[in-house]
Every structure is written in structure tokens, then in C-alpha cells.
Amino acid sequence: MSAFQNVAAAPPIEVFKLTRDFQADTYAQKVSLGVGAYRTDEGKPWILPVVKKAEKKLADMVDAEAINHEYLPVLGLEAFSTAATKMLMSPDGKAVKEGRAFGVQSLSGTGALRNGGEFLHTQMGSTIAYVSDPTWGNHNMVFKNSGFTEVRTLPKDFSVKMILMRSPNFYFRSGSTGIGTRTTSASTSTE
Q1: Into how many domains does the chain fold?
Q2: What is the pTM (predicted TM-score) of this model?
Q3: What is the C-alpha to C-alpha distance for residues 54 and 135, in angstroms, rounded to an integer?
């Protein structure tokens, strides 16, 4: 008997179900239009040459003991978070120049949304989240489970100024860079 026997299964995320259906399909000339990942002719993930180069450089640095596998600080590698924040918000942006923008490194895109959502809800009292259209199937629940009472879809003509008018205390963006790392950036900007 499992302690989890009464836990209801969540509905499948459509794009991942599409990937499973694609993998199960025996049609020789099928084409995957699901998750956007580079693939070889055999359908295996194709690793970009720059990623291979970066992985080799990291491995060489570990071998030379120039870097190690110590835990990062709670907010992540500061140099990475700072560079990612500047990339996402522009190094010349007012919030960056005034020191009002910051970044936090997290484990994954969904993890970043959960961390950011919980922070914005518990620390800033936010109750309304805005998501893009389209968005991943789990994003609405991530925000709801972080304490948001409402999740709204951004209009097609979305602009940051529109969001700032609706929620003047902050805006929130997530993005990715690096090898298997993601950052979440939030700003107290009202520009």
C-alpha cells in the first residue's frame, strides 16, 4: 500500500504528451513539431558545438581544480546572476543603473517561476500574475500554488508599461542562459 495512492494524477502537459505520442508512432516519415530541440537525423538530441566546447572547458577547469563543486550561495553565482540580469533588462536600463534590478539563479525554468512567484506573493503581497499566450501548461498552476489568486493572460500587444500600470510595484521576467541554468530576475522598477 502506497502513502500516495489517493493522490490524483495531474493532467498531462500537452507538449510532453505530444512528444510521447511522437516517440510511440512507428511512421517512418514522421516529423516532430513539439518541443523545440535540435535533433540529428536519427532523432537524438544534437548538442550545439558551443555547448560541447563550454562543457569541455568546465571539465578541464574541474580537472585543474580551478573550480570545484562546492554549493553556490543561496542566491546563486553572483557574477552569473548579475550578467543575466543585465542581459535581460539592458545594462543601460534605468533600474540596472540605479541598482534596483537583481537576479537569482535557480534550478530550472519552472523552479525559477515557483521561486519568483512565492517571493512576489509572500514578500510583496502580489496576487495577480501575468503569463504569455501561449505559455506552458503548468505555468498557471505554478503561480496559483505560489499563492496568487488570479492568473491573467497577457494581450498580444503586451508591453511592460501596460503591466506596470496594472501592477505598479514590480514586474517579473524569466529567461535562460548558460548550460542547464536559468535565472529569474525581478525589479522594483516603475520606469
Answers
A1: 1
A2: 0.58
A3: 30
